[in-house]
Write a structure and sequence with these properties.
Blueprint (H helix, E strand, L loop, with lengths): L2 H16 L4 H10 L3 E10 L2 E11 L6 E11 L7 E6 L8 H8 L4 E6 L5 E13 L5 E7 L6 H5 L10 H12 L4 E7 L2 E10 L4 E5 L9 H16 L3 H16 L7
Antiparallel strand pairs: 1-2, 2-3, 3-4, 5-6, 6-7, 8-9, 9-10
Protein name: DUF3945 domain-containing protein
């Protein structure tokens, strides 16, 4: 057995978020020398169950194995069917198990990614549940740095107690960047309230939930709604004006007078 290959794969599996519980099974499979094999992993996040199949394949020219991908099946408490997604593993742009879970829940994850030219760039990833690729996987939307979402700036618009302490602030930002729904303390009308927040890069905001994790209408979303209403009221009433012109023409043709 290629011991160096085993040690590398063991660490790769561990730091992809699967821990070390698959170590014995991994060693056993490599000893058998199959052309490919799959390891099963089960975990829970709250009341959600996440079952993953880790896919390994042996090189066609050496005795080395590669951890190519894992397929995650998410079973949510009130969902009728499992949600499945395959995440590919390589040297760059890997999605950990927890990040994969957060993406499958519709939340955004911030990653340093590598493009085809080998240059590193930062972007928020979010699953697009309306589009799938040829393999049936949901496509991932990317919101790059020039998109204009500034997480720290948006957090500053909320009266979050933890943002006043450098260590707590760093912890909150890092948690949100991983796609977590993070608990914080927010001051409302002089009272401290437990709230949950998550990053919403597509709408350049932070979504706020109450203590029961029900979405709240925060100031940011209110401002977005107001701006949309203003845009709509400021927009010309094209259809309405067309209708009025047509009505005038019809009445004029009939010899009727029009006032106003």
């Amino acid at each position: 057995m290629n011991e160096k290959n085993f040690e590398y794969l063991k660490d790769q599996v561990k730091y992809s978020g699967f821990g070390d519980e698959l170590e014995a099974q991994l060693r056993e499979q490599i000893k058998k020398q199959p052309s490919e094999f799959t390891l099963q992993h089960q975990t829970t996040f709250g009341k959600d169950a996440l079952d993953s199949s880790l896919h390994f394949k042996r090189s066609s020219v050496t005795d080395m194995y590669f951890f190519n991908s894992y397929t995650a099946a998410l079973k949510q408490e009130q969902a009728a069917e499992n949600l499945k997604q395959t995440f590919y593993i390589g040297r760059d742009n890997n999605v950990t198990l927890k990040e994969g879970y957060n993406l499958m829940n519709g939340r955004a994850v911030n990653k340093d990614l590598t493009n085809k030219e080998g240059k590193i760039y930062n972007a928020w990833l979010q699953m697009d549940f309306k589009q799938t690729d040829n393999a049936g996987n949901f496509k991932l939307k990317q919101f790059h740095q020039n998109y204009g979402f500034d997480l720290e700036k948006e957090l500053g618009k909320l009266s979050i107690k933890e943002m006043g302490n450098a260590q707590d602030k760093s912890r909150v930002i890092e948690s949100l960047q991983k796609g977590n729904r993070q608990v914080v303390t927010i001051s409302e009308n002089g009272n401290e309230q437990k709230r949950y927040i998550e990053a919403n890069p597509q709408f350049k905001s932070v979504t706020v939930y109450d203590a029961n994790q029900h979405r709240m209408q925060n100031k940011q979303s209110q401002n977005v709604s107001k701006s949309k209403q203003q845009e709509q009221s400021a927009a010309p009433d094209v259809d309405g004006e067309k209708g009025r012109k047509q009505e005038r023409k019809q009445k004029k043709d009939k010899g009727m007078s029009i006032s106003g």
